[in-house]
Amino acid sequence: MLRRKCKAAVMAQCRHCWRLYQATPSHMQTRQFKVAVIGAAGGIGQPLALLLMTNKLVTELAVHDIEPTTGFRKDLSHMDTGCQVKAYFGSDQMKTAIKGADIVMITAGMPRKPGQTRDFLFDTNAPIVAKAAALVSEHSSHALVGIITNPVNAVVAVAAEAMKKCGRYDPRRLFGVTTLDVVRAEKFIGDHMEINPRKVRIPVIGGHAGTTIVPIFSQCQPPFEGDKECIESIVKRIQTGGDEVVKAKAFKGSATLSMAYAAARFTNALMRGLKGEPGPPECAYVESDATDSPFLSTPLTFGPKGIAKNHGLPELDEREKQQLKVAVDALKKSVSKGVKYME
Ligand SMILES: NC(=O)C1=CN([C@@H]2O[C@H](COP(=O)(O)OP(=O)(O)OC[C@H]3O[C@@H](n4cnc5c(N)ncnc54)[C@H](O)[C@@H]3O)[C@@H](O)[C@H]2O)C=CC1
Ligand SMILES: O=C([O-])CC(=O)C(=O)O
Predict the structure, then answer these.
(1) Nearest alpha carbon, ligand 1 atom 16
(2) Where do the TM regions start and end (predicted)?
(3) How would you classify residue 210: left for phi > 0, otherwise alpha for psi between -120 and 50, otherwise beta?
(4) Do 204 and 185 touch, CB atoms closer than 8 A?
(5) What local confidence, expressed as pLDDT, does residue 31 receive?
(6) Euclidean distance between CA atoms 278 and 280, whole angstroms
(7) CA dist., res. 301 & res. 278, Å (int)
(8) What is the pLDDT of residue 17?
(9) What's the predicted TM-score (pTM) here?
(10) What pLDDT does 30 receive?
């Protein structure tokens, strides 16, 4: 964070009356964070950019896509928030968008259609993620990187390998974004218990596809009220939440608005960590030694260098231990696929 000195006084008009008052020139305002969104013109990218524009911790937003972003940037630039937005487009400009960013959120890539698995997207999306990760290493190696692009379970390993090739991999700074699984869990549990979903906290560990998504009902706060059948049906709904949206959108993409909401929550948690004011732990898919899977989503506390503390596995009941075992077997294969792709 930096504060530049300037004696210039700027007079501005109050929003509510005609009085003039002394305002802080924009270049004197405290710089908070630069966030770059890669794939910003897409279904997730646009609402994510909108939400980030409204976050006081974001003072510079770089929107990048292979599609033109100038019109979309112009639109955002009329918002009277303290955030300056800059547009970049085309492969060549990705590095400029990333340069100097504190956080890079990668949402570039294809979403799935009904009948496809997330893994089906690997061949298309892996090279996109590899390129973005390499550019982060080269042009903003201090940045925290959130990967939204699917299949998260495999492409996070692709990103890690791409960064290793550049000699700049720091496992504390690379995250697969699994927040939507947590958001869904909190919403479905809140609705079931007839309480505000915002009051629910539950770790969702593992990965981000089908049975690799493991919600830990035994650690739900407030304690979950419902029998075994009820837990099973909500677990199933969380694990298939993505399919539910893909089906409902009928060939018009996958979850975008709820994902943007989840990604904005995750980005905010990273920024609070960067400021040294972390909030409650958030789960994300990161390099891990908690199980045999080299990557695993577990609760994390963030700090100025990314992960300040990986809380590891929460206490699990017998059913959850079985679910985790299934998840770990599948995750090991996905991670191997990502690593092999980069060999
Ligand atoms: N992690 C999660 O929980 C979730 C992940 N996703 C994934 O997020 C990804 C994006 O989904 P949507 O936004 O709905 O797709 P979309 O197709 O609406 O947007 C993707 C954007 O990426 C851009 N793009 C493609 N290649 C690029 C490149 N090389 N450089 C820069 N931009 C590029 C496209 O032009 C497009 O604007 C998909 O892979 C989807 O499966 C979706 C929902 C939840
Ligand atoms: O299901 C999809 O393809 C998109 C996604 O990851 C989700 O909504 O959880």
Answers:
(1) 42
(2) none
(3) left
(4) yes
(5) 79
(6) 7
(7) 7
(8) 59
(9) 0.94
(10) 76
Contact predicate 130/158, CB 8 Å: yes
The number of the ligand nearest the C-alpha atom of 261 reads: 1
SS3 321: helix
The residue to which tokens 């958001």 are assigned: 183
Cα 11 to middle of ligand 2, angstroms: 48
- Return the ligand number nearest the Cα of 64: 1
With contact defined as beta carbons under 8 Å apart, do 173 and 143 qualify?
Answer: yes
Name the token pair of 181.
């699984």
Is 16 labeled as catalytic in the residue annotation? no
Cβ(295)–Cβ(176) under 8 Å?
Answer: yes
* One-letter amino acid for residue 309 of the chain: K
Per-residue confidence at 6, pLDDT binned at 50, 70, 90? very low
Among candidate residues 64, 139, 192, 208, the one labeled active-site is 208
Instruction: Tell me which DSSP letter residue 221 carries.
Output: B
Quick one: tokens of 267? 């980005």
Confidence of residue 331 (pLDDT cuts 50, 70, 90): very high
With tokens 């079985």, the residue in question is 322
Give the pair of three-digit tokens for residue 262: 């989840």
Q: Which atom of ligand 2 is nearest to the CA of 245?
A: 8
Q: Check residue 114 and give its pLDDT.
A: 96
